[in-house]
Amino acid sequence: MTNPAAPSHKISVSFEFFPPKSDKMEESLWAAVTRLAPLSPSFVSVTYGAGGSTRERTHHTVKRLLNETNLAPAAHLTCVDATKAEVDEVIRQYRDTGVKHFVALRGDSQAGVGGHYEPTPGGYRNGAELVEGLKRIDDFEISVSAYPEKHPESPDFATDIDLLKRKVDNGATRAITQFFFDNDVFERYVERVRRAGIYIPIVPGIVPIHDFVKVARFSAATGATIPAWLAERFEGLEEDPQTRSHVAAAVCAEQVLDLVQRGLSDFHFYTMNRADLVYSICHILGLRGAPAAGQDLPTAPVAA
Ligand code: FAD
Question: Family, per the entry (predicted)?
Fold first, then answer.
């Protein structure tokens, strides 16, 4: 019998990490990178804290990925709470380090997701303007955000998609979505995007649910819907991490395999700096951990 889940097309994955705050977290990050690297991700991205709060740590992590692995890092960059001159300086520093790929974002103020957004005088006002600024400095590869359930501040889908169109017109070549759990919602969004004349890949952002309570809280802030069936799956498992982890793997595999059945081939995983669930899902997708010919495993030491 053939594997009904086996994709008939080539699967490509990318992984998102966040910059660690402590030596212990740095150790976890590198353990995750070492485990996931042999899956040959098309790129790995490193987030930028709210309001640019992790500027140095993000740069440090991207630099280590560049210098100590064969992975292709993408630096997340936000333009909130900074002037154009300040953001341009950060871009030039990345370029001088060898970074060729950015995930360009407006970002949120340190006040937090959902707080009122005020463009900084003399700053880039949104993701589209940041893409333009990046392209003025160099011919970088640029990924941007997309919101299948629309951005919470957006009055409607048309406004949101119009902004995405401006990002593409300014040079973005890939959009990565906010996480979502209802694949029909994603499919309807992609249809709207295509109707608006946007043809770049819209890569689904997939979040494995390590901690349902945390994901539910974050979903409320970002406007991602938690379907009732999903909440039911995790019901009563608050004190049972082992079952929770099995359920999380099943839920994520179901979502990703359904997207494969719908013809999707690129997936961006929000790893939370953990390899376990992501590695299992990638294995189910048919990716294998053997290093490609000529590809070395990362040789990163644990401490910086
Ligand atoms: P944009 O796409 O520029 O705009 C989003 C919405 O804001 C628009 O739809 C519009 O309604 C409104 N808007 C745009 N311009 C204006 C304006 N001038 N005045 C008022 N409203 C306006 N956040 C981080 O801090 N660091 C990260 O590393 C990070 N990585 C992310 C990666 C992905 C794939 C995604 C999907 C999100 C990420 N975020 C990150 C979250 C993101 O910063 C927030 O969702 C933020 O609120 C919007 O940023 P954006 O680039 O998506 O905004």
Answer: Belongs to the methylenetetrahydrofolate reductase family.
DSSP 279-290: HHHHHHTT---S
- pLDDT digits 0-9 by tens, 171-228: 999 999 999 999 999 999 999 999 999 999 999 999 999 899 999 999 988 889 999 9
Distance from residue 152's CA to the centre of ligand 1 (Å)? 10
Q: How many CB atoms lie within 10 A of CB 117?
A: 14
Q: Do 252 and 234 form a contact (C-beta atoms < 8 A)?
A: no
Tell me, what's the pLDDT at 83? 96
Q: What is the pLDDT of residue 289?
A: 82
**C-beta separation of 101 from 73 below 8 A:** yes
76, 124, 151: which to mutate for ligand 1, most atoms within 8 A of CB?
151
Tokens of 70: 């064969």
**Residue-by-residue DSSP string for 206-261:** E---S-HHHHHHHHHHHT----HHHHHHHTT-TT-HHHHHHHHHHHHHHHHHHHHH
Ligand 1: atom nearest CA of 113 is 47
Residues in the chain where the model's pLDDT stays below 70: 1-8, 111-115, 290-304
Quick count: other Cβ atoms within 10 Å of Cβ 211?
14
Point out which residues pair with 16 in neighbouring strands: 45, 270
What single-letter DSSP state applies at residue 262?
A: T
Q: Find out whether the beta carbon of 16 lies less than 6 Å from any atom of ligand 1.
A: no
